[in-house]
Amino acid sequence: MQMTWANFLPLIFMGVMGLALLIYVVLDGYDLGVGILLPLADDDEKDIMVSSIGPFWDANETWLVLGIGVLLVAFPKAHGLVLSALYLPVAVMLIGLALRGVSFDFRVKARDSHKNFWNWLFAIGSMVTSMAQGWMLGSYLTGFGYGTVSLLFSLGIALTLPTAYAMLGAGWLIMKTWGKLQLKAVQWARAVLLPMGLALVGISLATPMISHTVFAKWFALPEFIGLMPIPLACAAAFFASLQVLNKPKIVAAGYGWIVFASTVLIFVMAFLGLAYSIFPFIVIDKLTVWQAASSTAALQIILVGVAITLPAILGYTAFMYKIFWGPATMLSYAMPEPPAGPAGPEASGVVATPVVPVARTGAAG
After folding, report:
1. Residue 184 lies in a domain
2. Per the domain annotation, does 322 fall within a domain?
3. CA–CA distance from 336 to each of 56, 79, 332, 348, 352 (Å)?
4. CA distance 117 to 308
5. Type and span of the H or E element at 288
6. Residue segments in the chain with a per-residue pLDDT below the cut of 70
7. Helix, strand, or coil here: 358?
8. Per the omega criterion (within 30 degrees of 0), is the bond before 280 cis?
9. Whole-Å CA distances, 193 to 160, 196, 303, 359
10. Can you tell me whether residue 325 is helix, strand or coil?
């Protein structure tokens, strides 16, 4: 195919959508993982865990909105096909995200007797969201098939993706916390590292068997040799995490970030492998990038908006992480002092309303 501007435009939007979804999976992945791990901590530790993701979790979901938005406006045919096939898991995912949003806010404002309820709801919302995304990935890789093998494959990813998110969340907590909670995060990471590794290996081996397109991409020479850096990088990252987790002195020396960085590397390599496997299809074996794309005139107009929006989101994301980087801080609950004397609430007959607790969730970096 001759690479004209009209043919190159859809590739730009494919790259933007892929970048947005990759950043979403990594960033929202760790705060979903923290939510999944929340029931394993005691009450004070739960406050620190929530504090560690407080400034970030809501903004992390912006990348999902951008990715789906690009799919809608740049690839409307694919959007209609994907959302029609994934209507139920998308609805479940949105319910999970809504549960997380509501419980995140209400756990801070609730009375002590109700706080545990919102903690559990936050954890349930995180797990439901993770499993829904796993089902969506499995269904996408099978071309939205409804056979027994396809459904079992989707179910397998739905059950195993939470382990990967939990690994990201544990790595995040190792970086952001200290003391007893940090040691617990190391234990949690040890517990989910092997299941995550086995799940990734299983998915990597099963995907070519499910899709002839993926099989042809990976098991042909010389492509097979050229693709070896992807599994080798994943293996190296896995063993780097294993070494750090088995040597507490390394974590104590301040190198616990290696666990999080290694898990992110595994996610990036897996994403690159997936991108290579499906290209040039945007829906495997059904729609290519160019078949699904909007008209050239429409893409040129949309490109102007993307050229403004993408740098803006990248900029405020980087700024946010710079400001709130460093160890998490304890949640603080500030109550105002009522004015003394005749101006006080007793004199006026007005009952003072408590101020909503404010969470101090980061240290300026």
Report:
1. yes
2. yes
3. 27, 50, 13, 17, 9
4. 42
5. strand 287-288
6. 1-2, 110, 330-365
7. strand
8. yes
9. 12, 5, 40, 31
10. coil
CA angle 258, 260, 263 (to 5 degrees): 105
End-to-end CA distance of the chain: 49
What is the residue whose two structure tokens read 């995912």?
Answer: 93
Q: Is 100 exposed, middle or buried (0-12, 13-18, 19+ CB in 10 A)?
A: buried
The two tokens of residue 223 are 């492509």
Record the tokens describing residue 361, joined without a space: 């969730």
Closest by CA position to 63, among listed 93, 115, 28, 98: 28
Q: How many residues does the chain have?
A: 365
Tokens of 180: 């007893």
Task: Please state, in angstroms and rounded to a whole number, the distance separating the CA atoms of residues 202 and 270.
Answer: 13
Q: What is the pLDDT of residues 174-203, one digit of tens each?
A: 999 988 999 999 999 999 999 998 888 888
Would 350 be classed as within a structural domain? no
Range of the domain at 80: 7-326
pLDDT the model gives residue 260? 95
- The per-residue pLDDT for 259 is 94
Residue with tokens 């492509």, as numbered in its chain? 223
Give the 3-state secondary structure of residue 283: strand
Compute the distance between CA of residue 339 and CA of residue 271 in angstroms, rounded to an integer. 58
Which helix (H) or strand (E) segment holds residue 282: the answer is: strand 281-283
Inside any domain, residue 335: no
Side chain identity at residue 234, one-letter code? C
Cα 34–Cα 139–Cα 289 angle in degrees, nearest 5: 105
**Domain count for the chain:** 1
DSSP conformation class of 144: S
Residue 110: what pLDDT?
A: 66
Q: How far, in Å, are 27, 38, 318, 321, 362 from residue 365 at the CA level?
A: 19, 26, 12, 8, 9
List, in sequence order, every residue forming a beta bridge with 358; answer none if it has no partner. 332
Residue indicated by tokens 């109550």: 335
pLDDT at residue 207 in the model:
81
Q: Which of 334, 351, 274, 321 is nearest to 60 (CA)?
A: 321
Which pTM value belongs to this model?
A: 0.85
Ordered alpha helix ranges (H), the chain: 5-37, 43-53, 57-60, 62-74, 76-85, 87-109, 112-141, 148-176, 179-210, 212-218, 223-226, 229-245, 248-250, 257-278, 289-292, 296-323, 345-348
